[in-house]
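Entry 14. Ran structure prediction on the chain below.
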Amino acid sequence: MMRLIDADTLLEIFADRLAKVAERYGYDSAVTGAVSGAMKLIKYSPTVEPERKGKWIAQDGWDGDTYYECSECNQEFVLIEGTPQDNGYNYCPNCGAKMEE
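Output, structure tokens:
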């Protein structure tokens, strides 16, 4: 099964690491070159559009809490607060379905 990632978030993490490595070793080091190269690979990699599209269905739990269920795979998700979209779940982590509002 293909695992979808958020490339923009990954690039932010790499940029943060690059700044820390450059501060320690300088921008001309082999390590910064490797990190920069990895960032270019991520930036220019082809993207995929998931075939599955679903939505989060709010359900009332037996304990009074609200949980959310994926309409595609029926996987249940319990969140401490907010909705799945508030917590960055634009895709189902279980089946990869893109969640429509």
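Residues 53-99 form one domain. Will compare against last week's run tomorrow.
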